[in-house]
């Protein structure tokens, strides 16, 4: 009788020995290989990689071929043509400034010379287009060599942007059911002509649900950033979101604490903004081993200028935190 558990352990050990170039991180640690299965003498691996990492396919096949019992090795790849690194920006609940942070990160990376795109995957409440002031913009299509139709994302402020908010009529109800939602997200990932991008930032819907599961199963996500606020209700929701990403072994490379404090425009003193903020001696991340990578304060004068100005200026009023976020992204290349 075959000892499949032993063979699966052999496969896992080999995959864990394959390191990313110039790094001590393995494919397993980077969550680039998932859904690994062994069926008798056959090995099935799903490999998630960037447009600059096609060499990993041969690396996986040649390494697994060293197993004497392996008769067939199937590497099922997931990649977005032209996109080097795909990053998710998620949150435990809505209203914590996730979209503002996504736009700020994209603009900072753009200003540092990188080619960046944004995918608004918050299909129930898309507002990336609102943040950039482009609800009325049209989305073109083109035809591939195989005659399939793809979307051509518009370029706004040097960013390639795709959002359901650009396809729906203003005020239209967006009620997507499971299968339709899954198909829509796959289309936004793989049926969009992104061109050549260094980074594709995906603005996720808050919480845990079909959209997140679909992206975790199908999308070549390199890492996730989480956005929250220092309140008890936000932290409780965030803990559940963290648990979901850990279940899929996706690296969480940064937690952005938004609305961390507010500075008095008169005396300059900073103070807590939220009344339910946890005390400093309480682990605000519920023992899930994550602490804020950056903290973003509130600037009262900016709030009075409207949401559009806030979203487009967040990286300008917090240059140091967004520089840290940018460097964290660049380390994944």
Name some characteristics of this structure:
single chain; globular; GMP Synthetase, Chain A, domain 3; 8-stranded mixed sheet; 3-stranded mixed sheet; 333 residues
Termini gap? 44 Å
Roughly what is the average pLDDT, rounded to an integer? 84
Largest sheet: 8 strands, mixed
SSE order, one letter for each helix or strand: HEEHEEHEHEEEEHEHEHEEEEHHH
Overall domain count: 2
Which homologous superfamily in CATH is the superfamily of the largest domain?
P-loop containing nucleotide triphosphate hydrolases
Please give the number of β-strands.
15
Describe the structure in your own words:
The protein is an alpha/beta fold and 333 residues long. It folds into 2 domains: 4-78, Fe-S cluster assembly (FSCA) (GMP Synthetase, Chain A, domain 3); 83-330, P-loop containing nucleotide triphosphate hydrolases (Rossmann fold, 3-Layer(aba) Sandwich). 32% of the residues lie in helices and 24% in strands. The strands form 4 sheets. The protein has an 8-stranded mixed β-sheet. The protein has a 3-stranded mixed β-sheet with strand order 1-2-3, with helices on one face. Helix 3 packs across helix 9 (307-317). The radius of gyration is 21 Å and the shape is globular.
């Amino acid at each position: 009788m075959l000892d499949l558990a032993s063979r699966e352990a052999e496969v896992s050990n080999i995959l864990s020995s394959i390191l990313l170039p110039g790094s001590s991180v393995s494919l397993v640690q980077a969550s680039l290989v998932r859904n690994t299965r062994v069926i008798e003498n056959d090995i099935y691996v799903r490999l998630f990689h960037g447009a600059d990492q096609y060499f990993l396919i041969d690396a996986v096949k040649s390494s697994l071929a060293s197993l004497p019992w392996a008769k067939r090795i199937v590497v099922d790849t997931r990649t977005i043509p032209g996109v080097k690194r795909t990053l998710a920006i998620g949150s435990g609940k809505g209203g914590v400034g996730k979209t503002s942070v996504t736009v700020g990160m994209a603009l900072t990376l753009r200003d540092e010379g990188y080619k960046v795109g944004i995918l608004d995957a918050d299909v129930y409440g898309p507002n990336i287009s609102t943040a950039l002031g482009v609800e009325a913009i049209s989305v073109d299509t083109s035809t591939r060599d195989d005659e399939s139709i793809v979307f051509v994302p518009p370029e706004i402020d040097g960013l390639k942007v795709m959002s359901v908010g650009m396809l729906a009529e203003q005020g239209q109800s967006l009620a997507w059911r499971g299968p339709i939602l899954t198909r829509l997200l796959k289309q936004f990932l793989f049926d969009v002509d992104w061109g050549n991008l260094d980074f594709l930032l995906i603005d996720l819907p808050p919480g845990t649900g079909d959209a997140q599961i679909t992206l975790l199963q199908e999308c070549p996500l390199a890492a996730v950033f989480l956005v929250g606020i220092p309140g008890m209700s936000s932290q409780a929701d965030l803990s559940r979101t963290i648990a979901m990403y850990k279940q899929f072994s996706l690296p969480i490379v940064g937690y952005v604490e938004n609305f961390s404090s507010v500075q008095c425009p008169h005396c300059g003193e900073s103070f807590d903004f939220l009344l339910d903020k946890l005390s400093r001696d309480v682990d605000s991340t519920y023992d899930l081993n994550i602490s804020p990578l950056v903290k973003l304060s509130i600037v009262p004068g900016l709030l009075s200028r409207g949401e559009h100005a806030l979203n487009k200026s967040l990286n300008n009023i917090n240059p140091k935190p967004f520089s840290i976020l940018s460097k964290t992204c660049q380390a994944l290349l």
